[in-house]
Every structure is written in C-alpha cells, then in structure tokens.
Amino acid sequence: MQITIDTPYLTVQEFARRSGLSDRSIRREIEQGHYIIRPKVEGSKSAVLINMVHMAMEAADQAERMRQAGGNRSAQR
User: Fold this and answer.
1) Can you tell me whether residue 49 is helix, strand or coil?
2) Which domain covers residue 61, as residue numbers?
C-alpha cells in the first residue's frame, strides 16, 4: 500500500476546506488529542498545523487492520 500526501502539515483552515468539517470541529478534535499538531514554540503566535504524515500513517494502519480482519465489516451489512 502506498499513501501520498502533498504536504506534511495543514492549517486548521485548509484542513477544514479539504475535509468539509468546521474549524470548531477540528479544534475540538485537536483538544481531545484525535489530531496531532506540530508543537508550538512557547510565546509564538504561529498557526496551528495539523500533522498530515501522522494522519496518513494512522489511515494506513487502519486499512491494514481491516484487511487482516477480512474487510470493512460495515460495508458487508
């Protein structure tokens, strides 16, 4: 399996545009630890950047687990 990403990090706004989720939903997921962000430098006002490499690795792991389990169970219903 090969997954290609076009950039290692995305701003919340760009991730929202691409995913169709609201900024608030994405920030909530970040607060809950579901989306990994680039560590911020203390005192910096830089943008929050979502780690797309981590998301791609997580997606690949999930796909592999599903493959080993015999496919997507919800699709079999």
Assistant:
1) strand
2) 9-72
Q: Please give the Cα distance from 14 to 7 (Å, whole number).
A: 11
For residues 31 and 33, what is the distance between their CA atoms, to the nearest angstrom?
5
Tokens (6 digits) for 59: 């997606």
Query: Whole-prediction pTM value?
Result: 0.79
Q: How many CB atoms lie within 10 A of CB 73?
A: 9
CA angle 37, 7, 53 (to 5 degrees): 50
Chain center to CA of 23: 14
Res 77: pLDDT: 47
* Total domains present in the chain: 1
